[in-house]
Write a structure and sequence with these properties.
The protein is of the alpha/beta class. Helices cover about 35% and strands about 20% of the residues. Strand 2, helix 1 and strand 3 form a beta-alpha-beta unit. Helix 1 packs parallel to helix 4 and helix 4 packs across helix 5.
Length: about 325
């Protein structure tokens, strides 16, 4: 879906632009934001990337990371930039609530909102919408927005390519998820040709764990993993005491749910974490098992068919028991040969 195309004329002269993304940015959120940041700077726009929270340290390798403005560290500057922006890009989220503390600042800003995203059920808040739920990543859409819509493909340099490669790589599980189409591989080839060093990006993202993170991983696999074979399901339940014991920081639990899904025969996996203020859930599945439906119906969340998230204000045990209680409703699809 592409609406509000007539607003593109705003980019013909230098503008004040702010790029925003969702709370607790992941590789796709930050990669798409910084990729677009570097591109727009080439046309003499005044561009800033602002985020509502910190993000995993393994993303620090992306070009331009030092320019990212983190709201809790610079709240006054963030508010000023959003209030004065001519255009606010809304990347990798389809609902303003996903920006957490930035929501009222974005909602009340006078500048146009331009949404580029691949999540389901987009809200009607944007003046320009470039949306495709079939896209593997928002970074993929940023590439096509630059190349097909803005006709600026020749401007994609090594910095832009590195950021977009990171976004696509992380949201496709290193190109192993079902959303990795031939079109994705063609884009990846173009990004490598433009200067993305694929081997370095993989090394920086996946081989930069701290000692405590690896010890936490071992602890979680030994003590927190539960398998429910009759429903081909496995889950981790992580308490706030577990997080404190290993001094877990943002990004340290990234990818943990995939270990549960990697067990032979498992078709649905969950990571359930007590984050003190809320219980956070991440679901992953194989085939047609609807993670997005489960998260939307039971855990105030949503996402994609095979990868979704949610939350609950109940305690950890209650949420675990609720998750287990819904499995009989999906037994037929969970056990289908």
């Amino acid at each position: 879906m592409f609406t509000g195309e007539e607003n593109l004329q705003l980019l013909t002269t230098p503008k004040r632009i702010v790029i925003t993304t969702h709370h607790k940015p992941d590789g796709d959120a930050l990669g798409s934001s910084l990729g677009l940041y570097h591109f727009l700077k080439k046309y003499n726009h005044t561009v800033h990337v602002v985020v509502s929270s910190d993000f995993p340290s393994f993303l620090d390798c992306m070009p331009g990371r030092e320019e990212v403005i983190i709201y809790p560290e610079q709240p006054a500057l963030t508010g000023e930039l959003l209030a004065e922006a001519d255009i606010i890009f809304c990347l990798d989220y389809s609902a303003l609530s996903r920006t957490n503390v930035l929501e009222p600042l974005i909602a009340n800003a006078k500048g146009q909102k331009w949404m580029i995203d691949h999540h389901l059920d987009p809200e009607n808040f944007a003046d320009l919408v470039y949306w495709d739920s079939n896209a593997a990543a928002t970074a993929q859409l940023i590439y096509t927005f630059i190349d097909d819509v803005l006709k600026g493909g020749e401007k994609i340099d090594a910095a832009i390519a590195t950021c977009l490669y990171t976004g696509i790589m992380t949201d496709t599980g290193s190109f192993r998820f079902r959303n990795t189409t031939s079109a994705v591989h063609h884009i990846i080839a173009s990004l490598i040709d433009a200067g993305a060093k694929n081997w370095e990006i993989h090394e920086q993202i996946y081989n930069s764990s701290s000692e405590r993170r690896l010890k936490f991983l071992g602890y979680a696999l030994l003590n927190c993993l539960e398998v429910i074979p009759e429903y081909n399901t496995a889950y981790f339940a992580i308490s706030k005491e577990d997080l404190s014991k290993f001094e877990i920081s943002t990004g340290d639990t990234e990818g943990l749910v995939n270990y549960a899904l990697s067990i032979k025969g498992i078709r649905l996996a969950a990571l359930i974490i007590d984050r003190s203020e809320l219980i956070k859930l991440s679901l992953r599945s194989i085939g047609e098992i609807p993670c997005n439906e489960i998260c939307k119906k039971y855990f105030s969340g949503g996402g994609h068919l095979n990868a979704s998230g949610g939350s609950s204000s109940s305690d950890l045990n209650t949420v675990v028991n609720l998750f287990k209680s819904i499995l009989p409703d999906y037994k037929e699809i969970l056990t289908r040969k």
